[in-house]
């Protein structure tokens, strides 16, 4: 893969990652059309790292609060174990600490529950996903699926649920759908947003949840890919090309994410649905013509 090809892939990743139009679908289509050779796991890991850096920067306040309250929740959970044994052996009646005492603690647990099915699906479907990325028809179908979800949610009434109103079964259900987004063309952001809104989430909270739940998903994907290549076997020059693509993806994503967040909050999703249908149709036609 040349430097120009790598930079182009990084640019497309940064431009599409934070819109509900599937960055993986765009990358798969671009690789097939330009006949870009296998980019390798390290390239994917670095692009994920660039994406993750942008997400952490954009939602740094929420991430900080989530980590803080998550650690406090774990600490209180361990403290309740001590209280249990002390009450049992010393016949005390010490009150247990309340674990879910605010919205961020609840959100931490909801994100954790959503991550579990996503991780399992990502591991189980890995080989199938690699096959799907090698042609234009698979991402075309994925884009049609994304478009249908985006089109449908415009007809759902505005929800009012915030973290305290959401059950863990709902979070698990959302995680299942997010896991399906490992297939190229199915937007993780789009399908997670759609399911959140269908479940009655407040629109602002649905957008935040869709982005925040992507952080452990992206981090997990990068880690899983990395442990499979204990020895990368790539030259310093090739690594430099990959790193340049990741930097381009990160910089582009950083400047685009705020604008894209405003677009998602204000605009109807039918615009993005139409784009997915058009790109999916073009990819399907190219699959049979080229």
Note the total helix count. 13
Percentage of residues in DSSP E strands: under 5%
H/E element order:
HHHHHHHHHHHHH
Major sheet description: none
β-strand number? 0
Q: Report the radius of gyration as a whole number of Å.
A: 21 Å
Mean pLDDT: 88
Total number of domains: 1
Dominant shape: globular
Q: Structural class, judged by helices and strands?
A: mainly alpha
Share in helix: over 70%
Give start-end ranges of low-pLDDT stretches.
none
CA distance, first residue to last residue: 21 Å
Please give the structural blueprint:
Elements: H1 3-16, H2 23-34, H3 41-58, H4 60-90, H5 103-124, H6 126-132, H7 137-153, H8 168-180, H9 188-198, H10 203-212, H11 214-227, H12 236-266, H13 270-289
Organism: Blautia hansenii (Ruminococcus hansenii)
Subcellular location: Cell membrane
EC number: 3.6.1.27
Would you give an account of this structure?
This protein has 290 residues and is an all-alpha fold. The chain has one domain (3-58, 120-289). It is built from 13 helices and no strands. Helix 1 packs parallel to helix 12 and helix 5 (103-124) packs parallel to helix 8 (168-180). The two termini are 21 Å apart. The mean pLDDT is 88.
């Amino acid at each position: 893969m040349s430097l120009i090809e790598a930079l182009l892939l990084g640019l497309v990743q940064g431009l599409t990652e934070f819109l509900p139009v599937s960055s993986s679908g765009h990358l798969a289509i671009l690789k097939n059309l330009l006949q870009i050779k296998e980019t390798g796991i390290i390239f994917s890991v670095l692009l994920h790292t660039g994406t993750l850096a942008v997400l952490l920067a954009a939602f740094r306040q929420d991430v900080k609060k989530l980590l803080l309250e998550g650690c406090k929740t774990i600490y209180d959970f361990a403290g309740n174990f001590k209280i249990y044994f002390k009450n049992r052996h010393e016949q005390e009646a010490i009150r247990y600490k309340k674990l879910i005492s605010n919205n961020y603690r609840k959100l931490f647990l909801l994100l954790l529950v959503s991550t579990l099915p996503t991780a399992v699906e990502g591991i189980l479907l890995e080989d199938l996903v690699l096959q799907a990325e090698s042609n234009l028809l698979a991402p075309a179908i994925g884009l049609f699926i994304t478009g249908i979800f985006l089109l449908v949610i415009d007809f759902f009434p505005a929800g009012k649920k915030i973290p305290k109103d959401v059950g863990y079964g709902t979070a698990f259900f959302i995680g299942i759908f997010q896991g399906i987004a490992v297939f190229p063309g199915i937007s993780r952001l789009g399908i997670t947003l759609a399911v959140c809104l269908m479940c009655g989430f407040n629109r602002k909270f649905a957008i935040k949840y869709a982005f925040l739940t992507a952080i452990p998903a992206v981090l997990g994907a990068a880690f899983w890919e990395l442990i499979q290549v204990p020895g990368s076997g790539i030259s310093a020059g090739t690594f430099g090309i990959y790193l340049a693509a990741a930097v381009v993806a990160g910089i582009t994503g950083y400047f685009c994410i705020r604008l894209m967040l405003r677009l998602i909050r204000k605009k109807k999703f039918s615009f993005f649905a139409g784009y997915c249908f058009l790109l999916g149709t073009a990819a399907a036609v190219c699959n049979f013509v080229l």
